[in-house]
Design goal:
By secondary structure, the chain is of the alpha+beta class. The chain is about 30% helix and about 25% strand. The radius of gyration is 21 Å and the shape is elongated. The structure holds ligand EPZ.
Length: about 425
């Protein structure tokens, strides 16, 4: 069982390279199922979640091979339309394969992905969207659902909630539908724009990603593409919070600075200095950060839920009391119990956490419960007095490439011990 061991108290200093965005890479791998021509995806992050998607595509008969940090995908002939249950359970976001497979194959079966540490993770909006495009969706029992459609037909679809995955699923399915599709109240995350951009390189006709309304005009066929995905704004934000919590100076590049704006605004509020220069962002924190009185996670361009746990860790050592409200997922505070073991003064009331900043955390043995919670515990260990041991690090490896060596390169005393 691998563990990350941290001796805290050293201010982080230096520059680190940011890997490609996990939450762009996953839907974009699924998009390659829409064509029988080869695709090359560059700047792909070597994460366990990417490998799960690779194995799912291979189970359909598609080629999906690493060449350095690129993935070569060729879904020329597909001999299956069922997403393997074990892989679906391992990574619930594989539900975004349903749209492309349905559009390409006319049929797709998947087991309900089930919940995870941060919430029940329903897929009702995905199903409603595919049904609006003309799919017949049936439950086969054993928790399996099947969607079928000889030919998808464009529709005007209003999402009850701006779901990232549902927006991506519907957008991808609609590329090969007959006629025009409109997705209203669509998610606006930067990763949605990345999915639109590669689909248009493949010959799709999409406009509006990043706004609340996306228009897709169906086409006959999509061709292969070579594409470089965007940098990971969540990994970049997590690492920048390392400068805040350890009172150091960290530069991340390449990044797209505007993707980080919701976080940078809060980091400035905490009293740290933010400098943007082209595709790099530097945060300098010369003294103990200040509390933020009210922070709510919201769909983009609000503060991202994926940075809630790392931000909460930084607020644990801030001067003053902060209130952080998680509006996106119903139970994304499992890291609070672990932070309390390190001396954090945090109280959770419903969807809000009240964080009374302390001068110093103390090292402890803690366990990651999901990828962002795990990253938050590593951040807390970097600032804590003494030794912190973070267990269940496989969660962290789902979303961060070598997080331990990244912080070591910034001067953090961090080791990964495996047995
Ligand atoms: C994506 O998950 C991301 N994952 C998540 O990142 C991220 O936290 C989330 O978007 C929000 O930004 C990937 O992109 C692979 P949603 P997704 O559908 O698509 C409810 C990480 O840490 N909902 O926008 O699953 C749902 O329950 C991960 O990298 C429905 O009710 O998120 C949740 O409360 C974690 N019905 C809210 O919407 C549905 O059909 C947001 O979910 C779908 C969602």
């Amino acid at each position: 069982m691998e563990r990350i061991v941290i001796a805290g108290g050293t201010p982080l200093q230096g520059t680190v390279k940011i890997h490609g965005a996990k939450n762009a890479a996953l839907p974009i791998i699924a998009a390659c199922l829409l064509t029988d021509e080869p695709c090359t995806l560059r700047s792909m992050p070597t994460l366990t979640d990417i490998d799960v998607m690779r194995h799912i595509l291979q189970s359909f008969g598609a080629e999906c091979e690493w060449v350095e940090d690129s993935l070569n995908i060729h879904a020329e002939r597909l001999h299956s339309h069922t997403i393997p249950e074990a892989l679906m359970r391992e990574m619930r976001s594989s539900v975004i394969i349903m749209g492309p497979l349905l559009a390409r194959h006319g049929k797709v079966s998947a087991s309900y992905p089930g919940g995870c540490a941060i919430g029940s993770r329903p897929i009702d909006l995905h199903i409603k969207g595919l049904e609006a495009l003309g799919a017949k969706v049936s439950e086969e029992g054993r928790g399996y659902i099947t969607a079928e459609a000889k030919q998808l037909v464009g529709a005007d679809i209003h999402l009850d909630y701006p779901s990232v995955g549902a927006t991506e699923n519907i957008m991808m399915a609609a590329t090969l539908a007959q006629g025009e599709t409109l997705i209203r109240n669509a998610a606006k995350e930067p990763e949605i724009i990345d999915v639109q951009d590669i689909l248009n390189v493949m010959g799709a006709d999409i406009a509006g990603a990043g706004t609340g309304q996306i228009r897709i005009r169906g086409v006959e066929k999509l061709r292969g593409a070579e594409y470089t995905i965007i940098p990971d704004r969540i990994a970049a934000g997590t690492i920048l919070l390392g400068a805040v919590i350890t009172q150091g100076q960290v530069t991340v590049k390449p990044v797209i600075p505007e993707h980080l704006e919701p976080l940078l605004a809060k980091i400035r509020e905490m009293g740290a200095k933010v400098t943007i220069a082209g595709n790099s962002v530097t945060v300098v924190c010369d003294y103990r950060p200040k509390a933020v009185d009210a922070l709510r996670t919201l769909p983009h361009p609000g503060f991202p839920t994926d940075l809630q746990a790392p931000m909460l860790a930084a607020l644990c050592v801030a001067q003053g009391t902060s209130v952080l409200t998680e509006t996106v997922f119903e139970s994304r505070f499992k890291h609070v119990d672990e932070l309390r073991r390190m001396g954090a003064m945090v109280k959770v009331e419903g969807r809000s956490a009240i964080i009374r900043g302390v001068e110093r955390l103390t090292g402890a043995v803690v366990a990651a419960t999901d990828l962002r919670a795990g990253a938050a515990l590593v951040l807390a260990g970097l600032a804590a007095e003494g030794i912190t041991i973070v267990e269940q690090v496989h969660h962290i490896d789902r979303g961060y490439v070598d997080l331990d060596s990244t912080f070591r390169a910034l001067g953090g005393r961090v080791e990964r011990l495996g047995w």
